[in-house]
Batch of 4 targets.
Target 1
Amino acid sequence: MEVFLIPAGEPRYQLYCEVADEPVAPPEGTPSPGWRRRMVGRFTAIVSSVEAARSGAAHRRATGQPRTFVRRTRDRTVCWLAEKIAEQRLLWHLRGQQQVTAWFPDDVEAQAATGHVRQILRADAERHLRWLLVDSLGLLVSMLLTPLPGPNLLLYYFIFRVVGHYLSRQGARQGLDRVEWNMRASSTLTELRAAIALDPDVRERHVTEIASRLRLPHLAAFLERITVPAP
């Protein structure tokens, strides 16, 4: 597995990788057919459904197709969920790794880059644990609505949140405690740091070219989300 320490504007960094949209494996040691496995099964179905619907939503938005209010709301929800899935896939994928190559800008010392990686993973582990506790309460409340007729959408939402945060925290702890990190310097990532500081029109062209060299086709969209303030 390869990850990239992406400069996200001084002094911030973000870990980034692009992995295939593959099914999420159950946590190690999960009994079958225990309740945790059933929750992961539902979670996997939700993830697959969102990723299947994402391309249709993006196509309708890009082509300007007429959409009802309900369709627009659904498309926005699907795209939001797809972004959350993309953000957490790195940590989900880390759960099964023992050795990982981390590329970092070559204007940073390897020891400092390792410190940034560990700091990010430590913050991720704490954040996902915090939200796991909060959303677990939401899951318990949503279970009370199960006897009502119709699909319990609130329950599905909190299953997505709880399992997602649980798997993400597992990945962060794996990266901190068990992964052997192979740190490698990259002059291309240093170019990326300089490109981010450029004016938007020039920046987009440079970032797209750098992403092509790194073979990361979704990097430009990721950088747009993490470096451009929301209006």
Target 2
Amino acid sequence: MAKPPRRRLRPEARRLEIVEAAERLLQVHGSRVRVEDVVREAGVAKGTFFLYFPTWDDLLDTVRQRLVSEFDTAHPLPTEVDGPVDWPSVIEAQAGAFIDFASARQGIGQALFHSDFAERRTMADNAILRLSAIIRAGQEAGAFGPVDPEPTARLLFAAIDEAPRAVAGGEDRAAILAALQTLLRRTLAP
């Protein structure tokens, strides 16, 4: 049986095809995905893969950046341009959004944020930077107490990051979210 003729794509489109194939496979199979799986899914040669991604970690880094950008775009932080912001509600909404976002992406999240890749290729922790910014803005508005934003954000994120795994493990989402909101309120109370 003859193979169908190869489609000619612009380099950006071919690269995106590889990235999207990796995303689909990582979501289903997590860290078990390999280059061979991605090239088969994308319908490209192994050499084409390495033309765009010199290493496997380069591809994973690209996928991780896309995931972070997807969350940031879907859940932008408010500004006080249009009036006062309810910072306690903002941080609770961000935590809930993260739980839902990460719960829907367990396989890919495990491969990108909780694997040996994540240890090899650390990144500026966007979630902690985001939480720190919310805490500082809430403090400036008088909505949060005098905590040190960076270490507090790191510890709060540890709880937020555990929540999707608890939900995936069968815990009640509403109960987890309620406990998390209580933790956030008590920690950041003025």
Target 3
Amino acid sequence: MNAVRFLKEPLLHFFLLGLVVFGLHAVLNSGADTGSRGDPLLVAITSADIEWLRSTWNRKMGREPTPRELDGLVASFIREEVLYREAVSMGLDQHDSVVRRRMAQKMDFLFKDLAEMAQPTDEEISGWFDGNRERYRVPAHTSFTHVYFNRDRRGEGVENDAREVLEKVLAEEFDPSRTSSLGDRFMLQSYYPTQSTDSIAREFGKTFADSVAPMEAGRWHGPVYSGYGLHLVYVHDRTDSRLPDIEEVRKEVVRDLMSERKEKVNAAAYREIKSKYRILVENMPYRESEEQGERKE
């Protein structure tokens, strides 16, 4: 049989076609979980699987599993794997919102793991900090004592009462720690150490916090309105807002930089994967579908 005749043999064509089909199937299913060596009916539990089961139990229970407990863990793992494969083969994973959401979540985890592989360099950390310095600004803090006047109890005369007490404490230089008896009983504390403007606002409201912010330290001020009523305020101490050095907030900077990196990796990976698909959205003015796919009216 000469070479030309051999190349025309149907048996050779069938053999080559079989190789192509087999190779294409292997490529398309290379990422599938089909058991050891591609055998879909083989469930192989490796030593790594057993160690994972053992360490998971240890973290949860605070001790090593007994041999009988480990046998039970392996049996449960095998049962889950068998039922999972059978469910996939039956198509039970299709059109299931819980399964779809879980698989999408696992892809997000894979993207984030990629972002965490390389730790940022000192130059990257410094660059991030320089570009986001305001994010780490240390807010101003104020320590103060207040005397409370209950508007419901005192009625229309509440402001006059507060002003009379203010004149008294200014004239007689009252010790701020001994002035609580000059007003009404307050449901919370009278002395507030080292409070930021935001924390004061959460306690007394924004109007009160904004009024206290510019007050000079070492003297009485007021009356100041809040949601509770009126107050006289003695400012003990104030520290101005400032921008910290990078070493003061390095951990926060690295955390935020890595978070942004994860988001970028996630978005880039999603765009790459999505570019392989044609997006079709029915009866909805979906802008992305017009750019990357089609809209069906």
Target 4
Amino acid sequence: MNTEGESQPMSLRDRIGIDLGRKMALEEGIAWAGSNDVHYVDAQIDIAPNALESFDDARCLTVRKACDDNAMHLGLHTLSAVNTAEVSPFLRDAVDQYLRAYMDLAVRLNAEWIVVHAGYHFTSDKSLRMQASLDRIKRAADYAEKVGAKLLLENLNWEPDHAEVHYLAHDVEECRYFFDAIDSSSLAWSFTVNHATLVREGIDGFIDAMPMNRCEEVRLADNNGEYELHMFPGDGIIDFGNMFQRLEGGGFTGHYTNAFGSLEDCLRGRDVLVEMAEAAGIPGDADRPTDRTG
């Protein structure tokens, strides 16, 4: 959807989108979302039915037309299994190529953002991996500036202390490590609230400590506060009313993405979340300006 240079009023309901993942072909997902009055979607394009190599000129044109026909804002979502903190020969080059391929395709699809991750370490090599990840994301942000793409770095989930593998950018300190070092208009933040419940800062701590002017997406799911889950809103511990008060009251104008259960669960969850926001005094259907441009 081409809205460059515009600031369009949208209600909270309209700003709550859905993560399609790879549950259906991208064209079908966009049409499904549009038929259900959803205006924000993101999708993974690694393998079938959305294998990256399958997006030739004809398919890109079809996707762009589907977005225009359905007033859709499209984003892409890289795999967290791809280790952005990779240091091994050949593999480290492949990760750079992987990120560039996502950015190149985002431009061809008119996708407005790409969710990326900081990778993971194996406990004893954390410093080495953090530096490798920082260097790689810097390179990716530089490339994004050149081609006109936007990267959104997602805060990932805590893993138990006794686990060997740990995600990077899982708490405020690690997130600030990246955002304090990379001052690029092509790198912003994707705030996953259920991940935030697994660290001591919690959702409020992230909002207090992170540069909220760089937050462009908030990813929504509930959690039990003990380990990583993507639960239906209201089934866990998150106070979504307080979350909406902090974000909307603080001036957040980006989009939200439901990422839990089935696509039908995500669709039903929009109404539940709007009800929670309205109960907390945040209007769900009143229009307000949005900064999302593509």
